[in-house]
Amino acid sequence: MEHLYLSMEIGGTNLRYGVLDGTFRVLDFKKEPSRRLSDAVDKGEYIEGLVRPYIERYGKENFLCMALSLASLMNRERTVNYNSPNIKGFNNISLVDILTERTGLPVYMERDVNTALLYEIWKGHIDTRGIIIGIFIGTGLGNSMCIDGKIYIGNTGSACELGHIPVLGFTDSCGCGKNGCIELKASGRTLHLLAEEKYHCPVSEIFERYGEEKDVKDVVHACAIAAATEITILDPGCVVLGGGVVDMKGFPMEYFEQTVKENLRIPYPRDSVRFIRALGDPESGITGAAINAAARMGQRV
Ligand SMILES: [Zn+2]
């Protein structure tokens, strides 16, 4: 037995999948648009079709499990996928049961923000004592928390919804079903709207070309306020910062850090807070999923 991991990341835009060995080295890696999964009538059949060649090539007996990373809310037991953006017919689906039956392997599923943080901790050899938080500014405002090496998922499995903390006096309605969520001001979605409707430029260029405009800065400011709120409560050892918006050219990292600090108590955590830029490698999702699966199976990570 070779202790391999069959791993898949199901995102709103791309589906990435492959095979990793027992040390989380990627042996095989593929990417395709999530649209195809969205169009597939039988999701289980479609996913099995993608990974079946790997199971046959490497031999089923050499796989420890199948690991999944999903941009989705899920139940505490991590068996039911509640809803995934951009993928039709993928809501309230018992994905773990379906894929266990189809692959014959144990299946371990986790949220993408959590597998992303696990990857960054592993890759960056970050000391896992105490609290590490991950803030991922992408389409939404993603958040993850690792306490003494363990991802914190909360009582019902829905912890760390930082994007949906309420903003006093703000009443716009959010896609989550309630009003006044900070994500409406603090996310890539907001930048996208500005780029499209006001500045008429590709969103990827908005910081380079319009980074000094107040409404563009306001988005970064709102992200910093959300981060400062969490840091104030938790006093974490470090903050891993990543996501598509942070990776954009011209993202004002200095302004972000300064705004976070201005909103933290003196002297601590203002003087002690430490930011680490996420690497955000293409294989981070499938690797983080495998690391999570290994921990769930009691393997040494
Ligand atoms: Zn919301």
UniProtKB/TrEMBL annotation:
SUPFAM superfamilies tied to this protein: Actin-like ATPase domain (SSF53067)
EC number: 2.7.1.55
InterPro entries, per the entry: ATPase_NBD, ROK
UniProt keywords, alphabetically: Kinase, Transferase
Top-rank taxon: Bacteria
GO molecular function per UniProt: D-allose kinase activity
Similarity section: Belongs to the ROK (NagC/XylR) family.
The protein's name: Allose kinase
Organism listed in the record: Enterocloster hominis
